[in-house]
Amino acid sequence: MKVLVVGGGGREHAMAWALARSPRVEAVIVAPGNAGTALEPKVRNAQVGAGDIPALAQLARHEAVEFTVVGPEAPLVAGIVDAFSEAGLRCLGPTQQAAELEGSKAFAKSFMVRHGIPTAAHETFADLDAAAAYIREVGAPVVIKADGLAAGKGVTVAENLDEALLAAEGMLSGEAFGEAGRRVVVEERLVGEEISFIALVDGEQVVSLASSQDHKARDDGDQGPNTGGMGAYSPAPRVDEALHRRIMDEVMTPAVHGLAAEGRRYTGFLYAGLMVTPDGVPKVLEFNCRLGDPEAQPLLMRLDSDFAELCLAALDGRIASADVRWDARAALGVVLAAGGYPGPIAKGLPIEGLDLPLPPDTRLFHGGTAFDEEGRVVTHGGRVLCACGLGASVTEAQEKAYRLADQIRWDGVFYRRDIGYRAIQR
Ligand code: AMP
Ligand code: GLY
After folding, report:
1. What HEC string does 61-106 produce?
2. Of all protein residues, whose CA lies closest to atom 3 belonging to ligand 2?
3. What is the average pLDDT across 69-73?
4. Strand partners, 370
5. What is the pLDDT of residues 274-317, one digit of tens each?
6. Whole-structure pTM over 0.90, yes or no?
7. What is the 105 CA–ligand 1 centroid distance (Å)?
8. Which of 194, 215, 157 is nearest to 283 (CA)?
9. Nearest atom, ligand 1, residue 191 CA
C-alpha cells in the first residue's frame, strides 16, 4: 500500500520513516516533506503545502493511498479529516470539532471543567478591561494564553503584573497573534515537572504510547525563551505505573469519553501536556491533537511494532487489540536549531557532515531542510535537524545522540548540551 504523510518537519520525517519500515508499505508520500524525507528509502515528497486541503485530497486520490496521516495541528484544526472523509478518503486524525481541543484554549479549558479533568484555575476574556481587572485581582505570577493557534508562541508565563497586562493587551488588540488572540485565557501558574503523555485513540479506546518528555526552553537548565521543543526522550522515568494509571483514568479516558458525549468523537493522536505538581497531581497545561515534535522522533525510534498497522487499527476502531511493542532501550533526540531560533533565522545555509557515516544506534531526522540549486542540503527552518540515539539507558542514548549531533555543522548551528538531564539525575 501507499501512504500519505501531511507535513514537513522532524515529526513527519520520523512518521514517514516508521511507515516505510512496514513490509506492507511500498511507498510513503510526504507533502511537502523536507530534504530528509526526499532521501529516505521508499519515501518521496510531493510539492503540496500542508495547508492546501483540496490539493492534498487530490494527491491522495491520484496516488490511491490507503490512508493519510497528518503531522501538524493546523490542517486538523482547519478540517482536513472532515474534507477527506467527505471525499471518501481515510485520514487519521481528529475531525475539526474534535481538534478544537487544541484549536481553542477557551474551549479546552471549559471542556476540562465540564468533565472534571484536573487543570489550572482560569477565566476567559474577550475584553481588556475585564481581563486586566482579573489579572490585578489574582496577581502575578500568572499565565496569559491566546485562545487560538499561535505556532507554540501564544503563552506568556508572566512573573509580574506589568508583563501580564502587556501580554493580555498585545493579544486582545490583535497585534500579537491576529484573530487567535482576540480571546485570552488567564490562568494560575502551576509549578512542578512537565511531562508529555501521548495516546492513540480510535474513537472510543485509548492506547497510550510509551512515555516521553521534551525540553521546551531554548537554553541549558531549561532557561531562556520557550520554543517548540529543543529535544526529547523516551521513556520518561517520572511516569511510573501509578502516575500512568492516574493520567489514563483522570485525563485521557475522561477527555475521549467527554468529547464523544458532546458529539465530538475523537480519532487520532491525543497529546496531553501535563504539569505534575509537587504532590504528584497531573494537571493539564494543554491538549494537542497530534504527535509532539520532537517527542515523535525518539518515540518512533523505539516503536517495535508496525506503525502502518497501528494507524490502520485506529482508523478501523480496533486499537484496543492492536500490537503495540516498544524497544526496551531508551531513545533521545537533540534538536539542532538555526542561529536566532526561536526568533528570526537565516535560511539556505549549507549543512556539513551529512555524508559522514552515522554512529551506531543513531538516526538523523530532518526538520527544516531543503535542497539548494546545486542539490546541497541547506537549512530551511528554525528546528533544522534532530539527532537521535538509542541506548540501554537515557545516559547512553544521550551520549550517542550527541556523538551524531557533534559531527554536523553549519553557520550558526546551536543545540542544548543537556537534553535528558532530569531523567539522568533521577
Ligand atoms: P501550552 O502551549 O499551553 O502548553 O504552554 C506552553 C508552555 O507554557 C508549557 O509547556 C509550559 O511550560 C508553560 N505553561 C503553560 N501553562 C502554564 C501554567 N498554567 N503554569 C505554568 N506554566 C505553564
Ligand atoms: N514538543 C511540544 C509539541 O509538540 O507541542
Report:
1. HHCCCCEEEECCHHHHHCCHHHHHHHCCCCEECCCHHHHHHHHCHH
2. 292
3. 97
4. 378
5. 999 999 999 999 999 999 999 999 999 999 999 999 999 999 99
6. yes
7. 12
8. 194
9. 21
